[in-house]
Amino acid sequence: MSKIKKIxxxxxxxxxVAGITVTVLHFLKKKNANSxxxxxxxxxxxxxxGSWFGSNSTIAGSVQINMEQKVYPISSQKIKEIxxxxxxxxxxGDVIVEYDVTSQNLALETKRTEVELAxxxxxxxxxxxxxxxxxxxxxxxxxxxxxxxxxxTEAPATEEPTTEQPDNPDVPISTDTDADVDxxxxxxxxxxxxxxxxxxxxxxxxxxxxxxxxxxxxxxxEETYTRExxxxxxxxxxxxxxxxxxxxxxxxIEYEIMEYQLSSxxxxxxxxxxxxxxxxxxxxxxxxxxxIVLSGTSGYTVQASIGELSLxxxxxxxxxxxxCYDTGMYYTGTVTDKSLMPATYSYSYSEKMETFYxxxxxxxxxxxxxxxxxxxxxxxxxxxxANGSMYLPMAFxxxxxxxxxxxxxxxxxxxxxxxxxxxxxxxxxxxIKRGISYNDYIAxxxxxxxxxGIKTNHARTDSLYY
Length: 466
Hints:
Layout: H1 3-35, E1 37-42, H2 43-46, E2 48-49, E3 58-65, E4 68-71, E5 78-82, E6 89-90, E7 95-100, H3 104-134, E8 145-148, H4 176-190, H5 193-202, E9 208-211, H6 227-264, E10 266-268, E11 273-278, H7 281-287, E12 292-295, E13 300-307, E14 319-324, E15 329-338, E16 356-363, E17 374-378, E18 390-393, E19 398-400, E20 403-410, E21 413-425, E22 429-434, E23 441-443, E24 455-458
Parallel strand pairs: 1-24
Antiparallel strand pairs: 1-23, 2-18, 3-13, 3-17, 4-12, 5-7, 6-11, 7-10, 8-9, 11-12, 13-16, 14-15, 14-17, 15-16, 18-22, 19-20, 20-21, 21-22
Helix pairs in contact: 3-6
């Protein structure tokens, strides 16, 4: 048998064995998939409605009995008239205090100028950063290549002295050369520097040239940096821009607060109630207490505080969601007061260095609340919408490079399904925009035996914890 036939027979045998092996493995896998099951759980039990997470921040406060509205004096504004006195009954919308805002228009214009200057500073710093990024470090600049030629010196031309004697010694011999020399000697006698100039013409200075081609693109007026210096300069400028951005945001917020104060110059009652306290403006300023206090006749209020960078998220009359840790219940409240005087203390999850301002939220129907109970308030996010989305525990979602997927039940078996994700809340929940619905069942991907094709078994969610 030839060598080629042996090789062909060996290849055929190998292919047959490989085919049998694949068939057997497929059979065993299918048999294993049919004999084993994996638990799947209802999405509507482990998922959470995205409407609960329309906000990207929360604040906290405590329950106070009865509605209450406090009016603080503003040092930068002059009170024109106080329209109430202790014991008066007021209706929602009644004017309580009226400020004289005439003198504040100039202050508002000044603040607007400060906002614009802050914005201009950011633009200037950004231009400086762009210029820094264009600079070439000293180490990467082309170096000059000087070329030096050997000096060329020409020896002065001289004539050999003649030793011939004239035939007649009594007759002087005159030549044109001698005449020229005599004339030059006469001229040089009147001009002592002529000899020096004549010598300098005969000596050639060394010809040293520098190749300037490499300097055509170098601006010698530009400040130069080493690589490390340039890296530090860019980092410092970026930090400066970050600080300028923060300052600009604060200036913008201060301007909006001033503009709000000057919009009408009036403070009105936020609910029907009774004027509980009215004290002198100077006394209120010196003691940092409320000048006027209104008290409601029913309901509860939640006293909280909010950072200045989030003031625009809370508007008077807006409804917010609250959760009480003591009762375990959710409530709906209305923002009835947002003070312009900074709070002396606050509860907040924010780690930013901010000034906080008191906020009052009114809850009408809540018989199970008591004074001092702890409340978490979810701030509305007017820039994003969570309609149609859900949140799943991150443990149920797997990552494949830049894509996310879940192990979903499909016709009684597990199937790998990719999903579109969004925000991540608190590092525990991930938003699912598309890919599954509340009617689906998914497996816990880290459980034993979870793979595509395995039969599924509907299980209760509480079995995950026991």
